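Figure 6 in text form: structure in, sequence out.
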């Protein structure tokens, strides 16, 4: 742009000053974090100002190897301790793979050129065998960006188990949970002077006529930058005291890849019948809505705004757009507010949307050819170490962790197996109690009292013996909604309560549990004194970079309990089950749902074997946790059955298992199995 001068782009400073209200009328951070990215650029500009020339890293990128050159390069990679790799796919097939033993040397091995196959079938088979040998070499750590994608692809298509590995995306999520985790961002932060190249791959993917040489260089670059990035990330992880947290988060990847590819068997006849009933409910709701609002298209945002806010004269709920303008909205939160105020139209729209989601997202889900529900897990799907899930790379399946009960009951055991679901009982509430040092909560937990029952009765000023399901429900929503600093209006909105009732529960909760607000104060003090950094019970440190205020505090309040529970279920559940093959060689891990573990055991090994297995897993999940001066275990409840349904599974509370002999448990399970199979 300016011959003879160095030009360095950065983000316009004004973007760091903007702040607007989000669509649910809760203040958002706008582009607050942009100020940190600008700071990176300014520090780099300062370094670059020390010399006039442009200094770029010299990388040798081999993009047109012969067959023998490709084989030799792969063989040489076995002599390195770490090798980065990156894959590119088109049409569901592997198109290119790149390896980089150092930041300065990389190779792209193409399998196609445009639409033409490059290698003979025999050569391609040989390359895949050699690639598998490298990717499964225990002496060579593979460095990957977003290993969840690459490792899942190689496992699903070729049966290649990529190990051991490091993941720059997981490292980024542990170091800076608030920052983007894409490779383009990591290159801009860690690779000094590297011009932006990530758009080079987009044109090729549009069609076979695109520039093949540019794309091969792009693939090689994606591998070459990884050793450079991870070297600096490793230093930062050690400096921040988060290396062990990174290792723990990384180790959950392999079991998740396995479970995502294994999937769960689906009752296809049941799902067809459920779809028919769902469509009938939709038709009934539509008829009811048509009687209330003849001719109104409930799917049209424009028509709903006109009907509710103009024709009915209801005071509109608004959303603030990025340009600063406020416009009426009928999003989920607006409808929830209207429903809480008694507007039948809003209740029906919510019901219709719920049923239509069941029909499209769940009963209409795309299963794989073997009629299994699969997903793709993301080990860093949230900022608090919790795993997330979504549809597979092929577009089949979906989120396996948020399935409604009506869909769960259609997931069935494989032939000869029985399903076990083990939950950490009221896990977050227990961690909150000890983190907050809230004496009434701790006393209830240690006395074996249901914390939701106690909270409900304290709110209503009733003895525990007089607890009803409604009172317990009040206690449950209070525990879930008020532990983390929700104000009364937001609490009422989140749980569909009237503003008056939400305010009353909010006031009573903090009256009976004063330690919770004191804990919130201590968290804010800890942030202020420790450079905005908190440390959970496992030593994981997180620095909160958002704008100082209510949004940041809410995230800070839930960090220690949520990240602690995630570590327990992943370390003592998922990883224990997967890596202890000496104990669980015949057990099939199938799902992780935040604070619960799903797996199958071959019932053909006998009922005593099933009981012994689930007792071993329970013992691991109940490994003592240390918080403040307390050491405690979180009880693990167990459900067993041939489908995942609360109505049909045999349920054993932790207390029951602890007080029963192995023989009596086996006898009860034997009776259940006999009845279920009759």
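Output sequence:
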């Amino acid at each position: 742009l300016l011959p003879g001068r160095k030009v360095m782009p950065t983000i316009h400073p004004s973007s760091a000053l903007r702040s607007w209200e989000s669509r649910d009328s809760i203040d958002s951070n706008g582009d607050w974090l942009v100020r940190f990215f600008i700071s990176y650029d300014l520090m780099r500009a300062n370094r670059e100002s020390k010399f006039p020339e442009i200094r770029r890293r010299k990388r040798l990128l081999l993009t047109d190897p012969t067959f023998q050159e490709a084989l030799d390069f792969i063989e040489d990679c076995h002599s390195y301790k770490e090798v980065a790799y990156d894959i590119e796919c088109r049409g569901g097939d592997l198109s290119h793979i790149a390896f980089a033993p150092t930041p300065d040397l990389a190779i792209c091995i193409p399998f196609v050129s445009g639409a033409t196959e490059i290698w003979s079938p025999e050569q391609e088979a040989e390359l895949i065998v050699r690639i598998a040998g490298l990717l499964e070499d225990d002496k060579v750590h593979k460095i990957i960006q977003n290993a969840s994608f690459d490792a899942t692809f190689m496992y699903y298509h070729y049966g290649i188990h990529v190990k051991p590995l490091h993941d720059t995306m997981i490292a980024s999520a542990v170091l800076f949970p608030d920052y983007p985790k894409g490779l383009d961002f990591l290159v801009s932060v860690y690779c000094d002077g590297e011009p932006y190249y990530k758009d080079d791959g987009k044109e090729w993917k549009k069609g076979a006529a695109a520039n093949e040489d540019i794309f091969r260089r792009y693939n090689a670059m994606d591998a070459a930058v990884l050793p450079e990035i991870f070297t600096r990330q490793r230093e930062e992880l050690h400096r921040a005291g988060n290396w062990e947290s990174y290792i723990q988060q990384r180790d959950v990847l392999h079991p998740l890849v396995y479970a995502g590819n294994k999937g769960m068997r689906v009752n296809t006849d049941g799902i067809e019948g459920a779809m028919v009933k769902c469509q009938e409910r939709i038709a009934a709701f539509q008829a009811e809505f048509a009687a209330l609002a003849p001719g109104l298209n409930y799917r049209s945002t424009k028509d709903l705004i006109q009907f509710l806010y103009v024709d009915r004269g209801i005071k509109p709920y608004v959303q603030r757009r990025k340009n600063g303008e406020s416009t009426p909205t009928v999003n989920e939160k607006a409808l929830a507010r209207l429903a809480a105020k008694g507007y039948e139209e809003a209740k029906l729209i919510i019901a219709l949307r719920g049923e239509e989601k069941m029909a499209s997202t769940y009963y209409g889900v795309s299963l794989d050819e073997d009629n299994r529900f699969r997903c793709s897990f993301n080990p860093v799907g949230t900022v608090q170490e919790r795993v997330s899930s979504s549809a597979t790379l092929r577009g089949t399946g979906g989120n396996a962790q948020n399935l409604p009960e009506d869909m769960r009951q259609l997931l069935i055991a494989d032939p000869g197996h029985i399903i076990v679901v083990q939950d950490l009982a009221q896990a977050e509430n227990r961690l909150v109690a000890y983190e907050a040092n809230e004496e009434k909560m701790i006393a209830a937990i240690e006395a074996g009292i249901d914390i939701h029952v106690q909270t409900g009765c304290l709110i209503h000023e009733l003895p525990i013996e007089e607890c009803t399901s409604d009172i317990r429900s009040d206690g449950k929503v209070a525990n879930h909604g008020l532990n983390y600093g929700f104000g009364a209006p937001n609490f009422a909105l989140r749980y569909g309560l009237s503003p008056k009732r939400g305010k009353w529960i909010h006031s009573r909760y903090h009256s009976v549990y004063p330690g919770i607000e004191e804990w919130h104060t201590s968290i804010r003090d800890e942030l202020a004194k420790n450079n905005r950094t908190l440390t959970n019970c496992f030593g994981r440190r997180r620095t909160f970079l958002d704008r100082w205020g209510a949004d940041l505090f809410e995230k800070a309040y839930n960090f220690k309990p949520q990240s602690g529970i995630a570590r327990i279920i992943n370390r003592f559940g998922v990883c224990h089950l997967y890596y202890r093959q000496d104990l669980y060689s015949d057990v099939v891990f199938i799902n992780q749902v935040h604070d619960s573990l799903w797996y199958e055991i071959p019932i053909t090994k006998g009922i005593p074997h099933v009981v012994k297995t689930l007792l071993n897993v329970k013992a691991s999940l109940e490994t003592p946790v240390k918080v403040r001066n307390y050491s405690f275990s979180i009880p693990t409840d167990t459900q067993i059955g041939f489908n995942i349904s609360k109505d049909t599974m045999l349920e054993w509370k932790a207390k029951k298992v602890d007080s029963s002999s192995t023989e009596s448990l086996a006898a009860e399970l034997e009776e259940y199995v006999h009845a279920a199979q009759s």
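Caption detail: The first helix runs from residue 34 to 48.
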